[in-house]
Amino acid sequence: MRLLLINPVNPLALARVRQSQWNRYRIWKPLGLLTVAALTPADYEIAVIDENLGMPAYGEMPRPDIVGITAFTSQATRAYEAARHFRDRGVPVVMGGIHASMCPQEALQHVDCVAIGEAEGIWPHVLADARRGRLAKSYTADHAETAAIPRARHDLLPRGYAFGAVQTTRGCPLNCSFCSVTSFNGARYRGRPIADVIDEMRTIREKLILVVDDNLIGTSAAHIARAKELFRAMIAAGLRKKWIAQVTINMGDDEELLALAAAAGCAGVFIGFESPTPEGLAEVGKKFNLIKGRDARASVQRIQRHGILVAGSFIIGLDSDGRGIGRRIADAGSRYGVDILNTLFLTPLPGTRLWDKMHGEGRISANAFPSDWRYYTLTFPVAHYKQLSQSQVIREMESCDRRFYSRWRTLRRVWSSLWRRRHPLVSLVGNLSYRSSLLRNRQTYRDFAGRAARS
Ligand code: B12
Ligand code: SF4
């Protein structure tokens, strides 16, 4: 039996990536598919296609018996096109992952079967039913027991990625309004057995690894104790990997945690600051960042003192965001001292509290689905923003990026990371990569606005 697993390209994202020499650092492994592959019985011949590495000639490949497709929302448009190719040839197509799980009815118009939720509890049943010619329309999974998460099949992808990928926890209790994680993976923070994580990390050939956890350290004392245990195990295993991960700002509160993370190979962390204003934080529900007395700059500095780079992420277009928000975000990023700033448009993703609110208020402007899903990369203003028109919100984004990535501020940041020996090369590459996007973004926004005007 032949199983073909496909990670569809987001053509918009790729068009932009191809124009950049930093391409290699922007293509990431589809870990979900590698996990699905690991759950597949041994008598299947499995091929994993990542369209981000180049579009394959599906017609010239051996005919699969079944196809599995994954997709974030931004990839859904292309996922449905790829599905059509195989369905037209009589090959059953199963779609899983976040988009199909949040929009199963839509997905079912384009594929034969939808796998809703985490695959661990259902994929073997899906395959068994397909083998008997009894594939159901949908299968719904509970959140997996973490001991049931298999070691992902890293061997199935070719070389050429800058980063390997591993997951050590699932779930997040914070349920921020714009984020799908709590509705998809649940509010319970579930850690994989540490021995499994270490075993899996040994099978990853890349020297650099993206730890895909939504929050590697968690928020409670028990979560942090678990993170320390994980870092100690990484050190003891002598993995010699460098890794980056998403964390919350409380990482800066614990010197022991920081020292262990650095010794275990932590090179950088992404922190979602979301908004520079208390109203903005209250609006997105990120109460965690609102904790009284938190000095974001001091927290960032404590992390950086361990040689760990900090990338900060903010959202533009909140109901509380008025004119000048771009400048405020850029200044907050500089004040906190982050090495890289990533600002994204407020984007209602299906399944989130934000979607329910904006959809209910008729505020979703890019709504010709499924075609418009390709704009749900968080880099397009797809909604009606409360205080800012579409052109204003774009201007705020541009002013934010221009200010933070001005030649002078960029030089100062790269110099500081050189002086403090905090991965100066990564800082340089990151900053230049963002600077090089500035001009390209202007054209991309024009094209997007033109498309909205035409439709
Ligand atoms: C790592 C990651 C990335 C990586 C990319 C990794 C990749 N695959 O290409 C990077 C940093 C590049 C990235 C980018 C983006 N990301 Co992202 N990302 C994640 C993150 C943190 C982990 C994903 C992961 O690897 N999980 C581990 C695997 C094992 O889980 P999984 O993929 O869900 O797979 C399981 C199930 O879904 C299911 N499954 C999945 N596929 C299939 C297929 C079949 C056939 C079956 C049966 C089952 C199945 O089985 C798997 C095992 O249980 C998730 C959050 C999360 N917790 O999932 C956000 C997340 C997926 N990203 C999100 C977003 C919004 C984005 C961006 C649009 C925004 C941005 N600018 O960052 C871009 C989109 C890029 C693009 N493709 O166009 C959202 C997506 C929401 C949505 N509705 O689309 C998420 C959920 C985070 C959030 N805040 O809500 N991301
Ligand atoms: S944004 Fe981060 S902290 Fe908030 S719910 Fe999502 S994963 Fe959790």
Can you tell me about this structure?
With 455 residues, the chain is of the alpha/beta class. It folds into 2 domains: 2-140, Cobalamin-binding domain (Rossmann fold, 3-Layer(aba) Sandwich); 162-451, tm_1862 like domain (pyruvate-formate lyase- activating enzyme). 40% of the residues lie in helices and 15% in strands. The protein is built from 17 helices and 14 strands. Helix 9 (221-237) packs parallel to helix 10, helix 15 packs antiparallel against helix 17 (424-454) and helix 16 (407-419) runs antiparallel to helix 17. The longest helix is centred in the C-terminal third of the chain and has 31 residues, at 424-454. The relative contact order is 0.09. The protein binds cobalamin and iron/sulfur cluster. Residues 10, 13, 28, 30-33, 35-36, 68-70, 72-75, 94, 96-99, 102, 115, 118-120, 123, 167, 179-181, 185, 212, 214, 344, 349-350, 377-378 line the site of cobalamin (B12).
